[in-house]
Every structure is written in C-alpha cells, then in structure tokens.
Design brief:
The protein has 2 domains: about 25-135, 2,3-Dihydroxybiphenyl 1,2-Dioxygenase, domain 1 (Roll); about 150-265, 2,3-Dihydroxybiphenyl 1,2-Dioxygenase, domain 1. It contains 4 helices and 16 strands. Strand 6 and strand 7 form a beta hairpin. The protein is globular, with a radius of gyration of 17 Å. It starts with about 20 loop residues before the first strand and ends with a strand. It is α+β, with helices and mostly antiparallel strands. This is VOC family protein. InterPro entries: Anthracycline_SecMetBiosynth, Glyas_Bleomycin-R_OHBP_Dase, Glyoxalase_6, VOC_core.
C-alpha cells in the first residue's frame, strides 16, 4: 500500500504513525469465518491471530509476523454486502466523524473503542461509499508493505470524481492530482506529496447492486496464477487481466462475494 509514513527501519517497514487520511488497514466482515480464513490462507499465505472483539468475533490476517488485514464475523441476522473496507487514519476519530457529517456523509458505526488497539468509526461518503476511520492507540504496530499478499492500493469507484473529491479533500486535507486523459475521470489523492489513494469516476459502469464503493488491491507475484488460484478455491474472476498505471490487474471475488483486485507491480 502506498502510504504517507515516516522513514523506514532497517527491515524496510515504515514505523511512524500514519499521517491522517492515509489508508492504514483493511477489514472484511463475513458470515463464514472459518471458510474465509481458509480461502485467504491458501491465496495469500496469511496466518490468523485473535483480534479485538468490539464488533464480534475478529481475527487478524498476519504475514511474516506483520498484520496485513482483519476479518470479522457478521451476526447471522445482518445481511450486509460482503466487502473489503479500507480504514483511513485519523488523530481524532470523533472529530473526523463529525467532519464527515458536516460535509454530507453519514456515520454508521461508532465512534467506539476497539479494545486497546484504538478507536474507530465506519462511515459513508455523500455518494454512499463505505469506509472506516481509525485512530491508533499509542504507537501503531508497523505493517508489512510491498510484498505479495499485502494491500498496496485503495481506490474509490464512484459516478464521477467531482461529486466526492471535495468531500475527501475537506475531511482529510488531501492534495489532489487529476489524471489528464480524454477517456478517464481519475484523481490521485496525495498526503505530504505522496500518493495514497485514488478516485475513479466510472459513471454508469458502476455495478447496480453495489453503487459507489472502495476497491482494495493486493499485491501478487503473478496475476494469472493468482486468478487461477481464486477460481480453484471457489471464488470468481469478475474482470480479466488489464494493464493499469499500477501494473497488470485482475479483479476477483472470494467465495462470499467480496470483490478485490490483485496486481503485479513492477520491481
């Protein structure tokens, strides 16, 4: 994941607090915890450890002793869309939640404490795209980046960039850099001069059953191998390989229907 953080340590992993607005974690809420863990263990090589139970059963996906994602259990009576959700860093989640409201968004969950790990809220932008806000308690645990099996990019798919870019800029202080193209409506969001996320306006190409939503990209060594593994594990390919500025990308779903993309980034 491209992140605005401080200098890296000797192992190449940044260790300072995430700058506000930086995607700092991704989480997935599902009905079948055991089956979902098996899918991502086989696909990305994740191991799993117990996490805070602020929203029910929850595990941390771990790669090389670093947390890379979280997976939680949805209550049986909650029939919500199964989707990967990025969390954007905040120094004050309560103030950020209030800013979301004042700028036309909504707060669906929280703000609330996540055990001793931090404080969070789950919110929607004015177009309905869901994302989280995360305030780490104390010194954050360093994540692993730039390796297969890790999240490397988050992108908002929405009707058009103009309708929501101002919202994110106001709430998080992003600097915007439009991509100049006759056939693409795309804005890259920067913090401290570093790209951290994108907004892609796709108009009527948005899935009718989803509407605006955030997409998480996970790095893999080979997208074709990863796509074949996804289908072999019970998932599906929803958009075949295409070349992007990030590298070759395939968009897939896991067996419960959570959509994500795998990308092979140039070394």
């Amino acid at each position: 994941m491209t992140e605005a953080r401080g200098p890296a340590g000797q192992d190449g992993t940044p260790h300072d607090r995430h700058a506000p607005g930086t995607p700092c974690r991704v989480s997935l809420m599902v009905h079948g915890m055991a089956a979902t863990q098996e899918f991502y263990r086989a696909l990305f090589g994740w191991e799993f450890r117990p996490g805070p139970r602020h929203l029910g059963p929850y595990v941390r996906g771990v790669l090389k002793n670093h947390e890379v994602a979280g997976i939680g259990q949805l209550p049986p009576d909650r029939h919500l869309p199964i989707a990967w959700t990025p969390y954007l860093a905040s120094d004050d989640v309560d103030a950020t939640a209030e800013a979301v409201r004042s700028c036309g968004g909504t707060v669906g969950v929280g703000p609330l404490d996540a055990g001793e790990a931090g404080r969070l809220a789950i919110v929607c932008d004015p177009m309905g795209a869901v994302f989280g806000v995360w305030q780490a308690a104390g010194r954050p645990v360093a994540g692993l980046t730039g390796r297969p099996g890790t999240p490397v990019w988050n992108e908002l798919l929405t009707y058009d960039t103009e309708s929501v870019a101002k919202f994110y800029q106001t709430v998080f202080g992003y600097e915007e850099e439009p991509v100049v193209s006759a056939d693409a409506d795309y804005v890259t969001l920067h913090i401290q001069g570093r790209p951290v996320a994108g907004i892609h306006g796709v108009g009527h190409a948005l899935p009718r059953d989803r509407g605006p939503h955030w997409m998480t990209y996970f790095q893999v060594a080979d997208i074709e191998v990863a796509a074949a593994r996804v289908t072999g594990l019970g998932g599906h390919v929803v958009r075949p390989a295409c070349h992007t500025a990030l590298g070759p990308v395939v968009t897939v779903t896991d067996p419960e229907g959570a959509t994500f993309s795998v990308v092979s980034r140039p070394g």
